[in-house]
Design a protein that fits this description.
The complex is a heterodimer. Chain A is mostly helical. In chain A, 80% of the residues lie in helices and 0% in strands. Chain B has ten helices and no strands. The chains are: A mainly alpha, B mainly alpha.
Amino acid sequence: MTLIDLANPTRFLALTARVLPWLAAATVLLLAIGLYQAALAPDDYQQGATVKIMFIHVPNAWLSMFVWGVMSIASLGTLVWRHPLADVAAKAAAPIGAAFTFLALLTGSLWGRPMWGTYWEWDARLTSVLILFLMYLGLMALWRAVDDPSRAARAAAVLTLVGALNLPIIKFSVDWWNTLHQPASVMRMGGSALDKSFLIPLLVMAIAFTLLFVTLHLAAMRNEILRRRVRSLQMMQASRVAFSNEMGAGARGQNASKEIGAAG
Amino acid sequence: MTAALSALVRRDVRIALRVGGGALIGVLFFLTVVVLMPFAVGPDLALLSRLGPAILWLGALLASLLTLDRLFMADHEDGSLDLITMSRTPLELACAAKALAHWLAAGLPLIVATPVLGLLLNLDMVATGAVALTLLAGTPALTFTGMIGAALAVTLHRGGLLMAVLVLPLSIPVLIFGVAASQAVIVGPMTFGAPFSILCALSLVSLVIGPFAAAASLRHGLD
């Protein structure tokens, strides 16, 4: 089973139909374990119970960047290998990535309120995640602006790759800008010095969220394939109706439109 | 090939200067944005001179963005873009030539106008010079990244807001380092050199990425 075998949408649909229930079950199981462990994790001596926001916040932030990576690979698939499912993958990933990014911002700001005393701080990380969110929204706007999917796919692929090149530059310049304008006033987490009682639930949650993304992504890809099939069926039907109208009031045309009506 | 490219540059500059007010419209827009600022923040000269570099940079950013969506559109409408795509000159170089012509016709006048606008914002000679120099180094980056948006806009038959939404986040680094370098001269404890060199680096990087991305999107998008 190689990637090229999946180029056939029907085979892809059959395969994912078998895999998806297992993936969903694994996601639910890992999420349950992770949440249970997170609930049992001790409170932080400074932050109290609010530290538990971390178990939701960090996986979301990690996925916000991971999804752009997935979209970049899919874009390469569109532009270089012309893989038929690559643009489906790229299109299906964008709203999911935007949702993860939004959740990372939201949980971050809810965490920031008790910790920093403000919902929003022009901190370097927050700012770069906000810019990432804007780029996700721009990409989604681009997808929606064009009704021909393959045309939108190539434009979106170019933009995704340019974004992938630019994101590190933006991240770096926002870091620079932040140190220039405000010396680190924001409290920092322990980083790698994270205690084991926090680290293990965090890792479980990270894996669970990654599985959640894979599940949602495959399901969204299935929907997108089916949506495109519906669209092409509708186009065929419309062109048949137009054709039969052109034929005039002949019996053949009426029969044809009856057939289409029965099929629809 | 050099002859074809220089002919393309000359043609684009000539069209930009002769048709519809050309470069002056961009400068006029720049002037209007700068004049609007005191109405928004109040006629406080000290405050204006502190905000000066930021206002000038934002004005230049918006002015160069607004003129950009015509970069390929006019050529697409009269069919010359198809000829450029099919010619033997590599499309990447043709895109670079078009962007260069656009910068000469629309970017350079903004920089020439900067000293006059600096007077309005109570900037002294050194500060105005610094802003003009950073604009000179930074506006090519704006043009060359904006060109990607212009190419997308022409292949999608959509311009205006969509292009602005796509391109503006990509221009954040240029804005950061442009303003940082100007502020370094006026108030900052930092040296002018560091942010200015990064600004030049950003321009050079976009000089490479821009033409390739624009050519890719034209090649895949036009049919």
